[in-house]
């Protein structure tokens, strides 16, 4: 191994991996033979399992204590899992934290050396990678979310097809894919074109809309539309069947974390499906996040402060976080916004002053704080403060001030006089 100049380091024996789809470039840095020197070795391995096992043996030979790698698409997973199974504690680091100096050459070898130098000086932070059990659950919940999106996209295609055929069923029926809607769509595919016969297929409360349904079916639906509609409905049915199978598997995998799911289920707006998705994304061990603020920051539900020369230059956006976690929290917040709960009142209160996007992030952050406490403290319980919490804490002077500000915002001049 060549001897290279060394500087003061925090970790003596490190290895860094620059990962591609077919090849992994490894840089190993250990103490050199001379005082203050570093011994460095750079080599490449194919990403096949046997080669990765040989790489693990090489790292073990050099008694490497820390292995770091950059998060590159999904290519980091095979090396990470092999090293994890081999007894190492690999670190996955954020690509934004390891950018090379601008203007320098960029190759896989240089990237690996740069990453190793950052690691040995303790300048990197490990990203959150959940344990194996949570990773299995995460695969299922994410696939379920993808299937739901696929089914929604196919349903939207059906509605567009009906519009093309001048069938205005969606303007009359709130759910085109309900019992009545599916019966009518099946009849259309079978060749039925009579608006009166199609409208008579309505069930329950839909029967009160039969005259409107007869008008809605006055269109130009033909065999071409019937072929496309049959194909689209087959895709919807197949996807929904897959969703049911995935949900059944989720119920099996989440059994060890049923206690966490039950605790999250106490929060208004969070049902079993949302609770499973949240657990899959953040896990159940909150020691990974020392405080609720760390969890909110990791999830990007906290604004970034930009300060220079002692001056705060405004707060930046929250940044890009976990899209699956953000999606489920967004759905929970939207459902909460229609409830008479403290979080629902908080959303409406902020939305009036700051807008709906900021209200969604603020209430999502409140949810993460509650979730952190419920999962971290066994004795913690959720107690809803109620929609009247803000009104009860508001003093008459504060209420007067708020009303005056609202009137002044409308361009009015307000003069206050005490009542007789």
The number of helical elements comes to 17
Strand count, sense and barrel status of the largest sheet are:
6 strands, mixed
- Counting DSSP E segments of at least 2 residues, the number of strands comes to 8
By secondary-structure content and strand pairing, the structural class works out as: alpha/beta
Beta-strand residue fraction: 5-15%
Unreliable residue runs = none
Q: Give the strand line-up of the largest sheet.
A: 1-4-3-2-5-6
How many separate structural domains?
A: 3
Radius of gyration: 29 Å
- How far the N terminus sits from the C terminus, by CA atoms, comes to 94 Å
Q: What is the subunit arrangement here?
A: single chain
Please give the share of residues in helix: 40-55%
Kindly state the mean pLDDT as a whole number?
A: 88
Quick one: overall form? globular
- SSE series: EEEEHEHEHHHHHHHHHHEEHHHHH
Your description of this structure?
The chain is α/β, with parallel strands linked by helices and 420 residues long. It has three domains: 2-120, Nucleotidyltransferase, domain 5; 133-253; 257-376, no CATH class. It contains 17 helices and eight strands. The strands form two sheets. The chain has a six-stranded mixed sheet with strand order 1-4-3-2-5-6. Strands 7-8 form a two-stranded antiparallel sheet. Strand 2 and strand 3 (23-31) form a beta hairpin. It is globular and about 90 Å long.
Please name the defining characteristics of this protein.
two-stranded antiparallel sheet; Nucleotidyltransferase, domain 5; alpha/beta; six-stranded mixed sheet
């Amino acid at each position: 191994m060549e001897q290279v100049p060394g500087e003061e380091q925090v970790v003596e024996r490190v290895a860094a991996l620059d990962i591609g789809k077919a090849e992994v470039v490894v840089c190993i840095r250990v103490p050199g033979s001379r005082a203050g020197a570093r011994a460095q070795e750079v080599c490449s391995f194919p990403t096949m399992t046997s080669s990765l096992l040989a790489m693990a043996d090489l790292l073990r030979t050099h008694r490497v204590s820390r292995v770091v790698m950059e998060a590159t698409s999904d290519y980091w997973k095979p090396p990470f899992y092999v090293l994890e199974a081999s007894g190492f504690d690999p670190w996955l680091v954020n690509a934004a934290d390891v950018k090379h100096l601008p203007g320098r050459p960029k190759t896989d070898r240089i990237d690996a050396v740069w990453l190793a130098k950052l690691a040995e000086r303790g300048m990197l932070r490990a990203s959150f990678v959940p344990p194996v059990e949570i990773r299995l659950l995460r695969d299922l919940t994410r696939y379920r979310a993808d299937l739901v999106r696929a089914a929604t996209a196919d349903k939207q295609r059906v509605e567009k097809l009906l519009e093309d055929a001048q069938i205005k069923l969606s303007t009359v029926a709130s759910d085109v894919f309900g019992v009545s809607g599916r019966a009518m769509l099946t009849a259309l595919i079978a060749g039925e074109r009579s608006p009166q016969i199609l409208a008579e297929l309505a069930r329950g409360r839909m029967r009160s809309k039969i005259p409107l349904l007869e008008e809605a079916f006055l269109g130009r639906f033909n065999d071409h539309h019937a072929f496309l509609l049959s194909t689209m409905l087959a895709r919807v049915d197949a996807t929904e069947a897959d969703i049911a199978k995935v949900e059944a598997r989720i119920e099996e995998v989440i059994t060890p974390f049923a206690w966490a799911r039950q605790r999250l289920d106490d929060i208004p707006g969070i049902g079993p499906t949302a609770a499973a998705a949240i657990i899959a994304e953040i896990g159940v061990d909150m020691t990974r996040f020392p405080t609720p603020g760390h969890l909110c920051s990791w999830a990007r539900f906290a604004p970034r402060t930009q300060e220079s020369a002692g001056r705060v230059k405004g707060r930046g956006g929250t940044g890009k976080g976990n899209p699956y976690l953000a999606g489920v929290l967004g759905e929970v917040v939207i459902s909460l916004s229609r409830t008479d709960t403290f979080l629902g009142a908080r959303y409406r209160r902020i939305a009036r002053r700051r807008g709906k996007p900021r209200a969604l992030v603020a209430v999502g952050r409140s949810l993460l704080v509650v979730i952190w406490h419920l999962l971290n403290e066994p004795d913690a319980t959720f107690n809803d403060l109620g929609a009247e919490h803000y009104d009860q804490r508001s003093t008459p002077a504060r209420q007067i001030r708020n009303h005056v500000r609202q009137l002044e915002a409308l361009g009015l001049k307000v003069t206050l006089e005490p009542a007789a």
